[in-house]
Each structure stands twice: as structure tokens, then as C-alpha cells.
Amino acid sequence: MRLSLARPEQAARLSQFYRSIHGPDFPHQELFKAETLANLLADQEIAIVVATHEQELLGCGLAFVRSWNQSLEISTLSVAAHPRRSDIARALFEALRRLGVKSYGVAFFRASTESSFRRGRDMGATCWGYRPAPGSASISDAELIMGFINPGGQHRRADPPHSALTATPFASRIIDLLSDAERNVPYPKSFPVGCPRGTGAPVISGRIWPTYHSRGNFITIENAAGTFPVEIIKEFTDKVRKKGVRDVRLTLPVNHDQAYSDLKALGFRPVAYLPGWYLRGPNRFDCIELVFGAPSLVSNPQTFVERAVAKIHRDLRA
């Protein structure tokens, strides 16, 4: 079996492969069109690892490139009917993991079952938290974030400050596994952090950079500018929630203890500790993700995901 990175000129064959094994429920219908697939590959918005044997196409591993923080989200593994189907899928996953860690510095995937969680853990992944499913009112639809990071890569991870936030049991477990960090690097002063586009939207006390996701009806706040960023976030969140937006998400560098406390008081819930998530200059900085409007936790968790979310919530509280 040979593994290789897909090229734009292979788009026609790859789109045909995706159409042959996936139906109308496949979440990435854009891969069915050769021209769209070629453009996505040419623009480096996606990466596809292709598994072949002689002239036979055995499978494709899809990943999404996040250029703003040089990370790779491992997504769907599509494998044709084959006696070694599980081995092919494992090889595709490992190839994507190596690509993400070596070429980008951070690779991650989302696990929705106990088996996928355990497979990822067996391959060296660490649970970084959970992602509430966009558009869902049920916490059982959440997905666990499983990640890999290259601490000695091109962009060195900065040692996070000791604080109530980084001292939580959940954060401590992740930090202790990543001892190779660059010390005495100042953390970002502004928050939230993300991929702001354009000039932002004015609010009464400043400006804010939101990204609206129609699929799931949620907003990610990429940045805020003004004397009182928490007030800007509060004002914006109140406004969009009244207009029917389901939830609001943001990412906070872990040095902002007071902002973290203030945002929690407003109703934002911490859902993930993301090591080396924010990239600035030569360094990566640990962040925490918070969500306003996340589904309620289950008082008596029954499923694997419900139990995992309950433990994350308990261990992440500062």
C-alpha cells in the first residue's frame, strides 16, 4: 500500500471515489464536485492522504487546514470495501497525524464514541475538552476534542503562567504532559484570539470581530477592541442572542484570569483547554475555549459522552 498527498490534478478521480462510497448524508458534499475539490486542494484549505495499491484507490483521509494557527483538523476517513479496511483506515489516520504534527505543529480530531476516543488515546492523543454540537440542545451530541502537539516544532509553545485557571486538574494534566515549553515569553494582552477578518462590527463601547456560522446558527468571536473587552463581549452577546443566535463561542489566552472569571459570571462555560492553540510570531500560547448558550449538563449522565463531559466540566472549573 502506498500513501501520498493528493494533488489538484487528481480531483476528478478523487471526487468519483467519494461519490461511489458516500450518499446524500455525507457532510462534505463539496468533495463530490471535481472542480471544487481541485480548488480546495490548490488553495490548501484541505489536505487529503490517498491510499493506493498499484492502480487501485483504497481510501482517502480528509483533513482541514487552519492557516491562522497552523493546525490540522483530521476529519473523515473514507475507505472502500476491502479485507484490510481497518488497517487502511489506521494508516490514513496515522499519515494525517504525522502531517499535522510535523508540517503544522498541532493536529486534532473530534471523537463522538468511546471506541474512537480509545483509538486516539492509544495513538498518543490527549483529550483537550469537548465541543458542543452546533445547533443541538443536547449535550449528548457533543464531541470530545483529541489533540497532538509538537512541542519542539518550528513554533515553540510558551510556558503558561501559573494561575487558578492553569492549576485546574484538567489543565494540569495537559500541561504536565508537555514539559518542553519556552519560558519567560509574555502571553498576549488582547482577547479573544482567533482569525479576525475585515474592520469588525461597531458596538457602543468598541469593536468586535464575529464570524457567523449558518450551519448550527452560532457565532465565534475572533477579537474585540476597546477599553473594556468583557463589556463589549457582553453587549454583543446579548444583542445576537435576542436575534436568535443559538450560542456564542470564543477563545481566551490563559493569562487572562480576571476576564475568565468575568466571562463565567456572564454565563460563558469553559469547554476545552487548548495547548499551543494561538500562534503569534515564533510562539504558541495555551488557550481556553468558552461557550455562552451551551446545552445543559446532564444530572445523571448515562452515555460515554455525557460522562466524559461531566468529568471535563468538573475538572476544568477554576
Automatic annotation (TrEMBL):
Residue ranges of every copy of the N-acetyltransferase domain listed in the record: 1-151
Coiled coil stretches, renumbered: none
Molecular functions per Gene Ontology: acyltransferase activity, transferring groups other than amino-acyl groups
Domain of life of the organism encoding this protein: Bacteria
Name of the protein: N-acetyltransferase domain-containing protein
Native organism: Lujinxingia litoralis
